Write the structure tokens for this entry.
Amino acid sequence: MGSPINYPDDLSWTWNMTNLTKEQRHNRIFLTELMTSNDFANLASEWWHYSYGDQYWALFFGEPNCWYNLCSDWHVQSHLIEN
């Protein structure tokens, strides 16, 4: 992929293909296209970082709300207790 996870350098930016091998470029593009085509939001400064349903995801896709918060629905809570 061109850099380790949590590598604090410009090489970690998703679309920074500088000095990457052909295979590393292919893998980054493949991962990004796969994840974003399935509605995951990529944090541009970290090729490994994707969000789904959280605040960053909502901002990325222009959604007015994120999908999850604290559980307050008694159906959800009772299901969790039973299982």
